[in-house]
Structures are given as C-alpha cells and as structure tokens.
Give the backbone structure.
Amino acid sequence: MTSPVTQRGRGGFDLFRVLKQFGPLLFLFALMLVFAITNENFLTQLNLFNVARQISITGLIALGMTFVILTAGIDLSVGSLLAFCGMVAAVVAKGGTANTLSLSSNAGAGYGWGAALLAAVVVGTAAGFVQGLVITRLRVPPFVVTLGGLTIFRGLTLTLSGGGPISGFTPGMRWFGTGLVGPVPVPVLIFGLAALLCHVVLRYTRFGRAVYAVGGNAEAARLSGVRVDRVLVSVYMIVGFFSGLAAFVLAARLNSAEAVAGIGYELTVISAVVIGGTSLFGGIGGVGGTVVGAALIGVLVNGLVLNNISSYTQQVTIGLILIAAVAFDRWLKARARA
Amino acid sequence: MTGQLAADTPVPPLLDVVGLTKRFSGVTALDNVSLDVRAGEILGLLGENGAGKSTLLKILSGAQSASSGSISFAGRPYAPAGPDAARQAGIVTIYQELSLIPTLSVAENIFVNRAPTGPFGLIDWRRMRRQARDILARVNLSLDPETPVSALSVAEQQLVEIARALSLESRLIIMDEPTSALTETEVQQLFGIMEMLRRDGVAIMFVTHRLEEASSMCDRMTVLRDGRLAGHLLRDGGRVPVPRIIEKMVGRAASELYARPTRRDNAGAVRLSVRGLRTVRAADAPHAVVLDGIDLDLRAGEILGLAGLVGSGRTELARAVFGADPIASGTIRLDGQLIAPMSPADACALGIGLVPEDRKQQAIFAMLPIRQNFSIAALDLFSDGLGVMRPGREGAALAGYRKAMSIRMSSPEQAIDGLSGGNQQKVILARWLARDPKVLIVDEPTRGVDVGAKTEVHQILVQLAERGIAILMISSELPEVLSVSDRIITMRQGRITGEMPAIEATEESLMALMALEARPGDPQ
C-alpha cells in the first residue's frame, strides 16, 4: 500500500521549500546589496523613500491587478484609465477644463479635493464594472475587452481635456502627492495601507477565498456554489478603483493631470505582479509578492540611475532582470517540488 | 481478398498478444492477457469499467508500454514508441473523444502532417482536395473536404477518422465506444461501414458497453475482468447471446470488498421529487445527452443508486438538478416546495450538494491547501457578517471531519494534490457535509479511488444516509451500486429504464436494463 501522503508533506527542514516562499524577496535583497556596495547614496533614508514614492503609483494599481491576475484575467486598460480618472479628478477639482497654474484666476470655482477623489475612484470603479460585465456576460476574453478599454479611455481623456493638461490644484489636494507624515511621503503611506487592506481581503475574507478558487479552477468553483461571474466583475471593479486612486495621487503629486499620463503603466504593473510570483494562469500568488515585485522594479531603476547607467542600457538591464527574477522563482519552485 | 477462408485453414493472426501485463506503482492494471485478431474479422473487446480495456488500448496505440508480455503484428514484433509509430505500423485507434483538429478542414485533417506537395515543397491544395474526396467516398461520406471539422456531427467525424485510417493503409482499426454518442440511424450507418471494412480484409477491434451491438456485429469476443482474461466467446452459427456475455463479464462471486451492508429501513419522507424533467441540447455542448422526461423520488435517509453507462444521461441528470445546466421543462420539488435552481450557487443555498464525476477538473483546486478546498462551499458558515473568515471555526470543522473520516494528511495547509485519490474524495465529501445538505448527489464517488479507500467512502455514504441525508449515487460500477444502494434506478439514452429495490437486483438484471434498448413488453 502506498503512503497516502507524499514525501513533501512530511516534516523535516527543506531549504528550497523556505526559499520558494521568498524567492522574489531574496532577489530584491541581493539587488539592494549590489547597489548598496556600488553606490554610497543608495542606502540612505532619503533615497529609499524616494524609491518608495516612485513605486507607489504603479504599486497601487498592481494591488488591484493582483486580484485580476489571481482569477487568471488581465487588465490592459489601467494606464489609460489612470489618465482618464486623473482628468476627471482635475475637472472636478477645478470646476472646469481651464488649464491655469494660478489658482487666483478661478478661485472657488472647484469642488474641493474630496469631490475630486470621489470622482476619480467612482469613475475608475464604474469603468471596471462595465468591463467586467462585458467579460462575463458577453464572454469576450479579458485581454480583448481591456485592450479595447486601453484605447477607449485614452480617447475619452483626450476628448475631455482637449489634449492638454489641467494644472494647478489646491494645497489640500497636493498634500496627497507631496505631503509627509513624519518622514513618510503620503503616497507611500496610502500604498502601504492599501497593500495591508488588500492582503487582509485576500487572505482572511470569503471574497478572497473565492478569488483564489475562481482562479484555481473556475468550473470547480462554480460547482461549489461560488458565483463566479460576480467574483470576476468585482476584481475588475477593484483594479478600476485603484486606477482611480492612483490617478488622484499622481495628479496631486504632479500638480497636473496629463492626457498622456500612464502610457505603458499596464506593462509595469503586470510585471510587478508577475515578478512577485502571482501566476498568470491564476490561483497562485498574493499581495505580499506584488509589493516585493513593485519594489524590485523601483530599486532596479533607481540603482541604475544612481550608477549612471545610460537610459538605453537601463532598458536592456531591466528586461533581463525581470526575466531572471521570474526564472529564479520558477527554478526554486521546481526544486521545492522535486 | 474477399474469399471466405475454409474453417480448417490455419490463419496466422494479424495481431497476436501473448501474456501482456501492465503494472502501475503497485497496481496491476493488466495481468497476463492474451488475445488475437485476424484480418477481416471484428473482434469485440468487452469488460466492465476498470477491467483493463483502456490500458490494453493504450498499449496497442503506443501511448503506454507494457511491463511484460509480447505483441506481434503482421508477423513482426510490435512495440510502438508512440502513437505515431503505431499508425506507421498500421494500427489506428479511434477514441471516444475524437482526435481531429476542429478548426482545420476535413481535407487538412486527413492529410495532417503529410499534405501532398507540388513544386518548391508548397502544398498542392487541389490535389489534396481531390484525394480527400476519394478517401471520403470509401466510407460513403459525401462532404466538401473544405468543411471545418467543427461543423461535422460526431458520426461524420468518426467516419472522417476511419477514412483517414484507410488512407494510411491501416490493417487494424481499434474503435473505442464508437456508438456511444450516435443516434440509432448513425449506428446502423457505422455498422454498414464496419461490414464493408471486414469484407476488405481490415481487422477491427470493437470496444463497446452495448452488448446487443457486440452480439450482432462481432465474429468473436474477448472479455476482460479485473485486468485478467475472463474468456473468449465464439459465434457459432448465429450470434453470441447477450446473457452469455454478461455471465463472462460479471462472472465473479460478490467480492468481500462489496459486502452488502445490513438492510437499512430508515427511508423517510420524499425529499427530492423530479417530474417530467427535460433538457435541450446546448449549442456549446453538442455531444451532451438530452434528458427525456425524467421522473424520480428521493427519500430522506436513502441511497438511491443510479446505474447507467457513459452517455446514458446520468451525469446530465445530476447537473440539471444541481442548477449547473438549464432545464427545458419539468418540475423539481425539495421537501414539497417547487424549486428552480438557476445556478449551482442557488442549489447550494437550497441544500443540495454535488460531488462531481471528474474530481480533477470539476472538484479540486489542485494547488490550493486542503483547508481552502474544504471550506469553499461553506464560506458563509465560516465567516462573520462582514465576510471575514473565522479560521477557528473553519479549522475545528475540518479537524472534526479529518478524524471522523480518517482523512490522511500531514497538515490542513498541505496542497490537496499531494493526497491520494481516496483522501481527496473524502475532503470533497467533507466540503459538502460542512453545509449539512438535505440532498447529496455523488457522481462516480469512487472513481480513481484505491480499493481500500473505496470501502471507506461507501461507509461514509451509508453513515450520511443514516443521518437523514437523501443521497443520489451515480455509478457505473455495478457491485458498488448493488452494495451501497437501498434502491436502484437505471438510465439509458436520457430515460429511466427501470427501478428496483437493491435487494432484488443483480448485476445481470441491471446490465440488461442499462445496455438493452427498452422496448415495451420485453421480458426483463
């Protein structure tokens, strides 16, 4: 009679089992070590917070993207949606589409940062809802729906803004992009809190369990009484919400909403999620990995800049390191399974 | 070629299998099986599920290799390295799940990997179409070779596969359950082609559950039972009578593994009542069986066994009641209340559970921990009003079932695919018990479960019935149906063909109801 439990289920210390949990994190530490040695400015508080602030925008969207990818879906529209939500926030904040850096020219015409924030996340969530409905009701693959979304939201942004930026927000709104709480930049704080919330939702709620189940085996989830379509619509709403939130923070930081904001963000965001160990086939991964993945990309860019690597070489290096990080992760997992 | 050979002429067999054995890590799937097939004959290969037929087919088609024994084909030793080598040697296997590429045209499928080429090695489409048309004519199929395979019926696809086999100069065609998805007319057409092939000297190995068909078509039959050769049946003069086939297939004393439990007499009120249930063929599942007026009553505390072959509609019935497939007409009542579950989620909420047939595809989340696999159907019960999980409640429940069902695992955090089939199945049963369902439908509850764990699963089902749960147990293993059920119904082609108390049923009587066309006035 064969043992009902395979060997790897038995106790005993298995180095690779531990490593596979932390593959991307190890890679991040190794990279940080290299940069710390090669450049004395890397490991300073100022520089590290700078990196953290840089990753917080794409990081926020990556949190939402983690939910989507866990269900084996994808959202390519996030960059364009970010631009659109940012523009909506700006219009609400300024009470119009006038591009004036000077607040005095139309002081009091806007609706305040609260309304702008609300508008950005409501528009983002609604966009996710519509895309989710098309995916589940019309059975159009997420790749196609959100590829369409990528063009549509960019076009809506240009229509709304007439192609130009809308700049000049109140200090209250700008605080969300440039303020500090103690030594911590506000965008970093928002990203941190959001990551914590997403982690809790994925690990400790019914909804989180359903997300993993749908991504792990959609048919089994359906036959276990999970309302698969509702879960799917929800994850696109979540990534839409975070696109809206990120748009607000970005506009606040730049003191401007740009029609060309967020171009190519979808690739950075998806890279962060995948480097963090979340499987594009769904069911495996989590928010912790995504935070590490976003940090890895941020550290890489920052370290290369500090070391005066030309931006052309940077692109090559980033691409290679992305592939290496995922290959390393796969290798660890394969060893742990063997 | 077509001349009748005198009976006393010694004909060397085309395929000669001697002492074939196949072992999988401790399990012997095929044990010292010998058989032969001659040119120009139809050999029936028969046996219950698990008798070893599929293993034998996999070895002959090159998908697996034998552990020991020898095969010779056309006078030469035969040990194909893969399916392609088997085809090259002249043996083609046509599986139930057809192996054509649906998006390509009929002609492209016939000439896959060997398209006729013209100058510069480019494909000569005109020649390919012309040749395809000629090949199709050999199986009396007049279709445009340009038609995509996805537009063909199952019967037409089969004929295309046969045509392709002929164009490959195959000398032995193995057909695995070719009639299971065909209408009666299509079956007759297929038989016509089979007779023609026989006249042309092609050997056919015909694997079927339908004994009437085997009896009318086969020159000889080889019967397998529990991986061993149960015997050969020769047609002498007329046909081999069906009861003789059944005798050979069943032929064993009731095994101690299927010791019949003591009679329970605790069936309560009618829990689930189905009347006139009909379904229509969905566009995305053209091969599914259509339910044609199903009536059944399931009582609290009873195990109703549902016996039927593949394609009888047994799984479709389970899915329709569970809300997984749409219903065209008919009523379902649960405890007297009309219900209309539109989705499995509705059925769950009403108190119906389903342990599906295909554990890997439809039940488990392979990479997720046992704990998450267990609680997925009862997340509402293991969480608070805000939807936050209560891990304590969840863990305690799982620990309880782990003990009660002796589920062998190292930890609830272990991925479920590290468990044996039997332990996986226990986790899936526990998944539903956590909801305390009124009705539990189990479809092939012991498929892929090792022998020892089968008995455990059976005991669990009996205990659940004793707790008052109404259980509908679908199974194609007759000893299982006989030993676990209180009452048995049989299905064939989307209809219920018989009902009897388990105590009066025998494998022979069930087999007759499952495998034979039900005709009014037939003696049973």
In short: The domain at 39-62+82-250 of chain B is CATH 3.40.50.300 (Rossmann fold). Chain B has two domains: 39-62+82-250, 266-363+438-515. The mean pLDDT of chain B is 86. The two ends of chain B are 43 Å apart (CA to CA).
